[in-house]
Amino acid sequence: MRTRFRPDRQLSARMLLTVLLLGLVYAAFVAALIVLLKSVFWVVVIAGGLLAAQYWFSDRIALRAMRGQIVTPTQQPRLHGIIDRLCATADMPKPRVAVADTDLPNAFATGRSTRRAVVCVTTGLLRRLDTSELEGVLAHELSHIAHRDVAVMTVASFLGVLAGLVARFTFDSQLFGGRQRNEGYGGLLIMAVIAVSAAVYAVSFLLIRVLSRYRELAADRAGATLTGRPSELASALIKVSDGIRRIPTRDLRAATAFNAFLFAPTLGSRVSLATLLSTHPTLQQRLDRLGAISIELGEAAPRWDS
């Protein structure tokens, strides 16, 4: 799909490199399983089925999980008006528009293609942001659609899903398979399969997290460039992050599983092991990048601070 979002060659290169590396790991993983188990057909079939379902129904799954409802221009004229203007500016098809009734301030884009794409915002986000800030967030989400981020991340996650299933399947077979199967060569074989699966899961997890953090920075740049107002996106980030910190932890648990799709993660913004393995860069990293973009675009000197 050709749009007026500026092509991000670094993002494309990183996506390609990640997929190639995951492909190599996947080939080695399958080869190891064939040698060790000689029968992984049903595990691969199940994992493939889960991948296909996740890819095909990603929009429905995400909307149902976040309790989002498709809304019409009559129901949400402000929201539709902003997306209409941004899509006209970006020269891209308009996605479906949804709203999730939750105080958690956030937004996400999902869908396997531009025809199935949907942008969802929460009522908490609509209450907290003014029109210019909301425009910055929506431009960020539309760039994910234009760059096909959802499809790439779904396919890239297949290896981790497969490795996790194999490890669980093998562990359960060891646990419930009886003592004879767990002794001697059979026990060593099972432990080898679990070790290989765990290693593959760890590698795929790290690669996908690195790619995810970069694609968020790329979406920030694309969105800020489209609107020409990086400071408004930065202001939205600060408000959203502050709003998330005020939400009770128990209310964040349901959304945490969808961090990779959200505008801002439901984790804190402090640097820690959790944030280093997060799907998003830290708030300060995003603000620093937006500050640099603001200078590039000749916008007034940024005055935000996390």
What features would you describe in this structure?
It is built from 14 helices and 4 strands. With 306 residues, the protein is mostly helical. A hairpin with a 7-residue loop joins β3 (107-110) and β4. Residues 178-182 and 268-272 have low confidence and may be disordered. It has one domain. The longest helix has 44 residues, at 184-227. The two termini are 36 Å apart. Strands 1-2-4-3 form a 4-stranded mixed beta sheet, sandwiched between helices.
What descriptors fit this protein?
globular; mainly alpha; 306 residues; 6% strand; four-stranded mixed beta sheet
Give a short account of the largest sheet: 4 strands, mixed
Mean pLDDT metric: 75
Please identify the oligomeric state: single chain
Q: Give the helix proportion (percent range).
A: 55-70%
- Which consecutive residue ranges, at least 5 long each, have pLDDT under 50? 178-182, 268-272
> Strands across the major sheet, in which order?
1-2-4-3
Distance between the termini: 36 Å
Order of helices and strands: HHHEHEEEHHHHHHHHHH
Q: Give the strand tally.
A: 4
CA radius of gyration is: 21 Å
Q: So what's the overall shape?
A: globular
Number of helices: 14
Number of domains: 1
